[in-house]
Amino acid sequence: MPSTRPPVDYIERTRDQYSALGYPPYQWVENAGLPPWAELAKPLSQCRVGLIGSGGIYKTGQVAFHYKDDTSFRIIDTREPTSTLRATHFAYDLTDARSDPNVVFPIDTLNELAREGFIGSLAERAYAFMGGIYSSRRVRGRLAPELANRIVRDGVDVVLLVPV
Amino acid sequence: MTSALSITRAVNPPRAAYLDFPLGHTAGKPHQPRLNRYIVRDALTGFETLHQPGQMLMLPYEWADDDAWKDGVMRPRSPTEQHDDSRVERDATPQYQTEHDRALAEAELVRGGCATCVWLDEPGA
Fold first, then answer.
1. Would the CB atoms of B70 and A110 count as touching at under 8 Å?
2. Between A8, A33, A106, which is nearest B40 by CB?
3. Nearest beta carbon to residue A162 from set B1, B4, B22
4. ipTM computed for the complex
5. How many domains does chain B have?
6. pLDDT, tens digit, for every residue of B45-74?
7. Lowest CB count within 10 Å: A20, A61, A145, B124, which one?
8. Residue B108: which domain range?
9. Alpha carbon distances (Å) from A126 to A148, A158, B92
10. A148 touches chain B (CB under 8 A)
11. B115 by DSSP, 3-state: which?
């Protein structure tokens, strides 16, 4: 049966929830105008693809994220088995991400697409952070530029962003 | 990729692929590699097919046979029930999935630190 209900409006529901709880209104990031644009320079089948996810993924042996505006990130080797990946985040149900991290950090999926030749390759390093950061200033000013610099240094052609 | 349409519209990224799944499943369902391959493949296709800044691909996949899951998201389960904040208390200590993870990470720190963990300074700090 096809979908009958429209997409969940998380802005409206967060506004309702915050209001019911007596919290001050949540400040959404809004970017007006045309976003920046770059065409893909070559076909996907020749591209080195990067991955950045905000689902709170870390690897065993790494320090886990904390929940108070943690702007740190973890470097994840995409050639290692995803069975060593873990998930920690305060704002979504972690059950499925802990059972199969690919639902928020699709390393196996991208490796499969690379094996098939749909993408040229998956970058050796992927990046993970915990997206429950209430300071958009810190994300814009520190985290995003640092991640952008890293992926450029890694020589990727295109990056898949997987937020939660 | 996104599963939060209104938020992504507000952020207005250069391009996006929308998947109408519950939060925590931006790239698919657990242990369904075949479905997830289709989802991620279709999302990546946007890099080749979208040519207007701000365009969004609407992926055709459905979470379940009906959309009942959408009703309860961030809402009280009944008219008499209060809104609640199900998120856990936030503090600045690492929140490990398991105690074993904590032990492994602490042993790593004793050996010289986590080389693949990157902490950032504050702007201007």
1. no
2. A106
3. B1
4. 0.95
5. 2
6. 999 999 999 999 999 999 998 899 999 898
7. B124
8. 92-125
9. 12, 12, 24
10. no
11. coil
